[in-house]
Specification:
By secondary structure, the chain is an all-alpha fold. The protein is built from four helices and no strands. The protein has a single domain, classed as Arc Repressor Mutant, subunit A (Orthogonal Bundle), CATH 1.10.10.
Length: about 80
């Protein structure tokens, strides 16, 4: 059983993206602001696998839901 805490950094790891602070900040700067009428998984910068992971993580209220919500909020600033 995975009992590790999921963070924004580990979410980026899970998505196959660089997860160091500089890379995360660069990603946020590059892709924000996300329009209000576009859900996070529907954003055009995800691969199909990444979009599916994000969609399932929120829909299932999975262990990844909190960092996914954090990413969503950061992209809408």
């Amino acid at each position: 059983m995975d009992t590790s805490q999921h963070t924004l950094s580990t979410l980026f790891d899970q998505l196959g993206l660089p997860s160091d602070e500089t890379s995360v900040n660069t990603f946020l700067t590059r892709h924000a602001p996300l329009p209000g009428d576009v859900s996070l998984p529907e954003a055009g910068f995800w691969s199909p696998a990444q979009a599916q992971f994000l969609k399932e993580g929120v829909a299932d209220d999975a262990e990844w839901a909190e960092p996914i919500d954090e990413l969503d909020a950061l992209l809408r600033r």
